[in-house]
């Protein structure tokens, strides 16, 4: 078995969630199962020898609790790694819910309501990426402000919102730098940050080792998210699949075609170059292969 695995699921036949496992190094598909039930995963991975399962070093996943049970039961030497994207996604969703909650406490015609409602995407960006020099007029709150000024004035409407925003920004920065000591102190934050943000931090605290591994180790579920997007495109092109075997066949066919295209990049470029050559005759140019 590969030393580094990645677990996830995607919606397929009859709106069921199918389990998928990828190699974390070369991003090749290890297996796709019809269901993601715990007993199904235990049965599948139990077929491998104890020596093969002992070679697995890391398993990357989201915060699905029974994936962790499967890893502990089947891979004794593997470290559980929580995907960084899912951690940040949970924090941003908690902050966004608090922003909406605070926004609804103000009158719809008030400046505070307008600042929290319409430029909502600015609150989800990194503060360092916000425009701090050039201001723009916005007719919603009838003022000329920079993006940084909009966010600063918006979060100042509530102490909990300001603390939650600062925590989210610090968390993103710490995860990117891989500073596990500072990350642990952020998870143990005792500031007033709202109920949902507190629940999110409590979830991280219950999975502290796996969360710290997600920040310290370079592995993530990025390869799986890209593969799931490809599967969604396959299903969308076919207007859905009613047969799981047919879906698997199509996925494998697409993967084989991709491997063939990537194995001969020079030949493909040479063929395109030859076709693009101009000729002095009124006929199609002759195709010459690279061999």
From TrEMBL:
<protein>
    <recommendedName>
        <fullName>Transposase IS204/IS1001/IS1096/IS1165 DDE domain-containing protein</fullName>
    </recommendedName>
</protein>
<dbReference type="InterPro" id="IPR002560">
    <property type="entry name" value="Transposase_DDE"/>
</dbReference>
<dbReference type="InterPro" id="IPR047951">
    <property type="entry name" value="Transpos_ISL3"/>
</dbReference>
<dbReference type="Pfam" id="PF01610">
    <property type="entry name" value="DDE_Tnp_ISL3"/>
</dbReference>
<feature type="domain" description="Transposase IS204/IS1001/IS1096/IS1165 DDE">
    <location>
        <begin position="6"/>
        <end position="251"/>
    </location>
</feature>
């Amino acid at each position: 078995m590969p030393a580094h695995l990645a677990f996830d699921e995607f919606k397929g036949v009859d709106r069921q969630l199918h389990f998928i496992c990828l190699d974390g190094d070369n991003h090749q598909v290890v297996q796709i199962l019809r269901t993601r039930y715990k007993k199904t995963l235990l049965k599948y991975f139990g077929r491998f020898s104890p020596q093969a399962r002992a070679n697995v070093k890391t398993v990357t996943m989201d915060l699905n609790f029974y994936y962790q049970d499967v890893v502990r039961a089947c891979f004794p030497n593997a470290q559980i790694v929580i995907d960084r994207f899912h951690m940040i996604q949970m924090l941003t969703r908690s902050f966004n819910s608090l922003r909406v909650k605070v926004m609804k406490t103000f009158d719809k015609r008030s400046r505070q309501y307008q600042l929290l409602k319409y430029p909502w995407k600015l609150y989800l960006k990194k503060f360092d990426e916000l425009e701090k020099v050039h201001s723009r007029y916005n007719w919603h709150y009838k003022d000329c402000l920079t993006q940084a000024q909009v966010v600063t004035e918006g979060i100042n409407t509530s102490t909990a919102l300001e603390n939650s925003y600062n925590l989210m920004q610090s968390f993103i920065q710490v995860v990117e730098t891989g500073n596990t000591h500072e990350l642990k102190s952020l998870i143990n934050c005792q500031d007033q940050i709202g109920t949902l943000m507190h629940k999110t931090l409590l979830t991280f605290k219950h999975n502290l080792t796996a969360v710290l591994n997600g920040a310290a180790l370079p592995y993530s579920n990025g390869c799986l998210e890209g593969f799931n997007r490809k599967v969604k495109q396959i299903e969308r092109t076919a207007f859905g699949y009613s047969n799981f075997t047919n879906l698997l066949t199509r996925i494998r066919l697409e993967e084989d075609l991709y491997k063939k295209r990537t194995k001969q990049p020079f030949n493909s470029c040479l063929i395109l170059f030859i076709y693009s050559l101009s000729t002095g005759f009124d006929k199609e140019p002759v195709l010459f292969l690279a061999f």
